[in-house]
Amino acid sequence: MATQLEPDVHADEEAFRTEVQQFLAAHFTDELKGSANALAGVDGPTDETPAQTKWREAVGERGWGTPTWPKEYGGGGLTKAQAKIVDQEFAKAGAYNPIGGMGVMMFGPTLLEYGSEKQKQEHIPPICRGEIRWCQGYSEPNAGSDLANLQTFAEDKGDHYIVNGQKTWTSGGQWADKCFAIVRTDKSDKHRGISFMLIDMDAPGVEVRPITMISGTSPFCETFFTDVKVPKENLVGEEGQGWTIGKRLLQHERTNISGGGRLASMMGQSLGDIAKKYGETDAQGELADKVLRDRIADFEIRWNSFLLTARRAVEESKAQGGVSEISSVLKKLGTKLSQERSELLIEIRGLQGLGWEGDEFTKGELEAVRGWLFGKATTIYGGSTEIQNNIIAKRVLGMLDHQ
Asked: Quick one: CA torsion of 144, 148, 149, 151, rounded to 10 degrees?
């Protein structure tokens, strides 16, 4: 006799698939095709068309932007099988998920695990509806790879904290509504003196200065906190638990900026199809340059093999209760492959792949150059490759530090 192992919104998966198809037909219009999720980026403000806004509101109302998150907090409350159906049908329709950003990628899953009931009720629903934009207050000028060296200090003032200090590389800080940050509440202990708290970006004393990058954009910022008042209820977990909570959030970040998440959606058109537009083809319609053809095939095989491995690893981690140290493996490999793709794409396009501005270059060519330059940071942010190597050695391979 079949037993129901977990709550199921629709027992009949095919009936649910039909429901998703009908939803798409009703809400995802032709004018939305080719659009992207404005909330998912960190390189610009959220500028939505009226059609995009309606699409986000429709998906948010169903909770399908965060399909497996608890329904009581605004998520879809779907089973893994149902969430997979949503992904499949959205892909078939050419529809994008309009709910995203750091709230979905990092903060939301972390708050679901460590937050109080009041904090979940307050912060998770707006994330599920795509109504709020979060940024991350982690790195400091003297606390990058050695993140636990952070010095931003939150002084206990009874019913609130007063925060003073500086953060850097605050992605999208100039557009964010709120910041999840790790700060020091105890100067006597490097790791146990760190706490995790939430700061309103429009609070008095918060100043954001964008940093112009080599790619020509300013997605990162310096953020200064001068006597910023933070209510005690904005402390997540307990004082001194910030290092534990902060590391957990980083596992979510690394999974999403690897092939297991964000980078997979950035790949777009296959290299082979792009190369045929810029190079000569033979009588069979294949690339005449056999060496380049072999290099592209080699990359595509390795990339797709990695995506399958990443998907399996993420599913296994979730089955065991969430993300794990395997996120460091995914981040290390996925970011390296994305850089390799960008380099190969520049080579494929030749001189057309080196444009910075001008009518002789297409929008896609110009974006690819900026993406290539921006991509240099992917092996640094979210924990550098060297840091990932240390984590893999210690946590995955079980190698001990004998110092």
From this structure: 100
